[in-house]
Amino acid sequence: MDLDVVIVGAGISGIGAAYYLQRDHPGRDYAILEARGASGGTWDLFRYPGIRSDSDLHTFGYEFAPWTDDHSIATADRILAYVRRTAAEHGIDKRIRYHHRVVAASWSSAQARWTVEVERGDTGATERLTCRWIFSAGGYYRYDQGFTPHFEGRERFRGEIVHPQHWPEELDYAGKRIVVIGSGATAVTLVPALAETAAHVTMLQRTPSYVMPVPAKDALGNRLRSLLGEERAYPIIRRKNIVKGRLIWQFCQKYPRAARRLIRWVNTRQLPDGYPVDEHFNPPYGPWDQRLCAVPNGDLFRAIRNGRASVVTDRIASFTETGILLESGASLEADVIVTATGLNVQAMGGTRLTVDGRAVELADTVAYKGMMLSGVPNLAYAVGYTNSSWTLKVGLLCEHFCRLLKHMDEHGYDTCRPSLADPDMPTRPFLDFGAGYIRRVVDQLPRQGDRMPWLTSMSYSSDVALLRSAEVTDPELRFSALVTA
């Protein structure tokens, strides 16, 4: 089977890519290849209690599909329903091929085609198809395996050990003592949700994170919706929240000391009198050097205030039969231990890439406009923002991709390939981000350069100019056409 475009992944990015492709290029034949048996990506995979977004849905949602729920910070079931409803309304769901895991793709310059190798999870068979373009929208982490560090004595623990990425539906934690290891977005989501029925929940962290309460509902946004209606209000709310988010990030970057003091002041007001704020909520890094954890309506702080949850900042010496021994000598008793210790990053879904018989080493490539790789033809990918809503960037990338296809059609090109004019250009990590899951694999990821078009922008306004308004052509993007006899 020969296709114009293969989209890898039926999550929020893949569904968005399909919308823009069929809107701007209705004649192109495409398919979405999804390794799992359901759409929705992250929002279908994760089933742990309380799972929700940490970005507002007016910016995390699609620009073309208004978010109509009154909750701006939404739970996974609402987000999943939104993504699937959007796919159904535009007929995208009929283009998804489930249980199709892309394991390899090889490019032939002589044919201007990718040959894509697919493993069928439902039949065990291996299939091959060809396409002109691959759009990788499979996210940035391994779906089949979360990250868990080595814990001394783990095998001795007599209770249950659970990773949030693989939450068992049958787990009964009511009335039990729970220790959640971690301090990131997953941990601060889990703790208040578990605390509703558990005997007690302890969040055990090695290093604190910045945590800020945010309203679960956008009061001004909901007022605008009631006055103007969904369609007219949505772009206004979206613009408002884009600007607000950007101003907060810029303030934290420009005035980190003032931002730290402000966050501490807010935390102090949320916590009981005399609470050791500096011990448990005072990170050693600056605000937004790692992603700031948002807690809707301050639910984490409320669980601490009412005594159903607590925070311990210490290091693990070993697991014991009944809990965890800390390096300080203290012990935490537990019936259930939750290892909210992060993700395993996996670029391009782990797909093996070759170009004209030569293997592509991602670490040797440089990102072009944050959406293509040097030396790799006709392959685009979607990686969103780390300092804002993921989907804001993905939408712009999809628009630019469609404009690029139009340019190629108009000029009769079959191939475009980013090519570095200066192979000795200084480079730095693709994501300048301090999170542990990035640091663990930074040497395995593509790089970015020190100038455009090899910079990976994390600014929405800059990307609007680059990806939506600027020309798709560039001296370092080489176009070519097949020569036919």
UniProtKB/TrEMBL annotation:
A family per Pfam: NAD_binding_8
What keywords are annotated for this sequence in UniProt? FAD, Flavoprotein, Monooxygenase, NADP, Oxidoreductase
Q: Which domain of life is it from?
A: Bacteria
Q: Name one GO molecular function term.
A: flavin adenine dinucleotide binding
Instruction: Enumerate the cofactors the protein uses.
Output: FAD
Gene3D superfamilies (alphabetical): FAD/NAD(P)-binding domain
Q: Which InterPro entries match?
A: FAD-binding_MO, FAD/NAD-bd_sf, Flavin_mOase-like
UniProt keyword Kinase present: no
Would I find Cell inner membrane among this entry's keywords?
A: no
Instruction: Return the similarity comment.
Output: Belongs to the FAD-binding monooxygenase family.
This one is known as NAD(P)/FAD-dependent oxidoreductase
